[in-house]
Write a structure and sequence with these properties.
By secondary structure, this protein is α/β, with parallel strands linked by helices. It folds into two domains: 65 residues, no CATH class; 319 residues, TIM Barrel (Alpha-Beta Barrel). 39% of the residues lie in helices and 13% in strands. It has 17 helices and 13 strands. The radius of gyration is 23 Å and the shape is globular. The chain starts with 17 loop residues before the first helix and ends with a helix. It catalyses: (3S)-3-hydroxy-3-methylglutaryl-CoA = acetoacetate + acetyl-CoA.
Length: 412
């Protein structure tokens, strides 16, 4: 029996941090462990109901007790932002995937010159990693048949990386011939998705990638690894975290310097969906019963499982925004120590093998959120929006970023 047929159980994983479990398993647990000092430095001992009042002429939030017999007259929450944000990274590296993952499923041909210009604009915005293209058979992905021309046409910029996807040795050799300095390999945590997307089992794909990564190391190339369906599969439903951990561990052990974890159909949430909401979804859309059952597995246990085998600084997250949960999932990932986020300009993308799955989270929205949290990205959001405008205009569709849409309305 292969290791995939008998996947790692959560009981086999190293013990999870009690602090992490308390912080992420339930909001009430976090509230119990958080004490807020009052203005005199003592903890709040209010009895009875309380209400939060914001004083517009100050920066104080105060909890005022309705019970007049309470000893508490006010709790200063000035330090609350620091408590909430204390575990966030100071810098987040954004891996822009719009030029490859975002465009690969476009039905109408996107000219090579447009792709090159898009990449040029993304680099000008300050993005240091832009996934350029994929050396895959044109039979399967016609949109990327110009991979060689795109890679050779990109202006080389110091300290900017242009990884390319190489699904097999043939693709790898073509990428090297075109001057690739970094490659990426793509595996799945779902057996069914692997067979439909890669035409092979998970184990067969890993054998194939061992050959590719061995060749890449001989050429001194950097290697990135992708794992798809880390939360759920459009065929199998929920994916157990141990399966994700197994594939991520194998990719890391074969030499991938970074492992990107992809919620391919965008059903993941930071927590879990309630039974009441789940039953409501079932009653309205019975055809989605199997898929929606996947939401019971959240992002947190998946990340915990992977982090047991892959160092946290080697992990990236890649969220699709099908259910509008991508930013929330990114935030909880940051709180768990992740500092690399994949995103796509103007939310370009989708998955041809996952019906209803929308595009990647928009890079503009990610940058706006990160900057709002005081996290550095080295990305100029105005120049980034110019890149989004450029490709959206060419494709003849509205902007896929809520941030860009809102800011454009303010400037019109």
């Amino acid at each position: 029996m292969s290791s995939l047929e008998e996947p790692l159980g959560l009981g086999d994983l190293p013990k999870l941090s009690i602090n992490r479990l308390e912080r992420f398993s339930s909001p009430s647990a976090y509230r119990r462990t958080t004490s807020l000092p009052n203005e005199k430095g003592y903890s709040n001992s209010c009895n009875g109901n309380s209400q939060i009042i914001f004083h517009g002429n100050s920066h104080l939030w105060q909890t005022q007790c309705r019970n007049t017999n309470s000893a508490c007259d006010g709790v200063e929450l000035r330090d609350l932002p620091r408590k909430v944000l204390r575990d966030l990274p100071r810098f987040v590296k954004i891996v822009e995937v719009g030029a490859r993952d975002g465009l690969q499923n476009e039905k109408n041909n996107v000219p090579t010159s447009v792709k090159i210009q898009l990449i040029h604009k993304l680099v000008a915005a300050g993005l240091s990693v832009v996934e350029a293209t994929s050396f895959v058979s044109p039979k399967w992905v016609p949109q990327l048949a110009d991979a060689k021309d795109v890679l050779t046409g990109i202006p080389q910029v110091p300290n900017v990386r242009f990884p390319v996807l190489t699904p097999n040795l043939r693709g790898f050799e073509a990428a090297v011939a075109a001057g690739a300095k970094e490659i990426a390999v793509f595996a799945s945590a779902s057996e069914s998705f692997s067979k439909s997307n890669l035409n092979c089992t998970i184990e067969e794909s890993l054998v194939r990638y061992r050959d590719v990564t061995a060749a890449a190391k001989k050429h001194g190339l950097r290697i990135r690894g992708y794992v798809s369906c880390v939360i759920a599969c459009p065929v199998e439903g929920a994916i157990h975290p141990s399966k994700v951990a197994y594939v991520a561990k194998e990719l890391y052990n074969m030499g991938c310097s970074e492992i990107s974890l992809g919620d391919t159909i965008g059903v993941g949430t930071p927590g879990t969906i309630s039974e009441r909401v789940y039953m409501s979804l079932i009653s309205h859309r019975r055809s989605f019963v199997f898929i929606m059952s996947s939401v019971s597995g959240s992002v947190v246990p998946m990340l915990e499982a992977v982090m047991s085998f892959v160092p946290v600084d080697k992990i990236a997250v890649h969220f699709h925004d099908t259910y509008g949960q991508a930013l929330a999932n990114i935030l909880v990932s940051l709180q768990m120590g992740i500092s690399v986020v994949d995103s796509s300009v103007s939310g370009l993308g989708g998955c041809p093998y996952a019906k209803g799955a929308t595009g990647n989270v928009a890079t503009e929205d990610v940058v706006y959120m990160l900057h709002g949290l005081g996290i550095e990205t080295n990305v100029d959001i105005n120049k980034l929006m110019e890149a989004g405008d450029y490709i959206s205009d060419h494709l003849g569709r509205p902007l896929g970023s809520k941030t860009a849409t809102a800011l454009r309305k303010l400037t019109c």
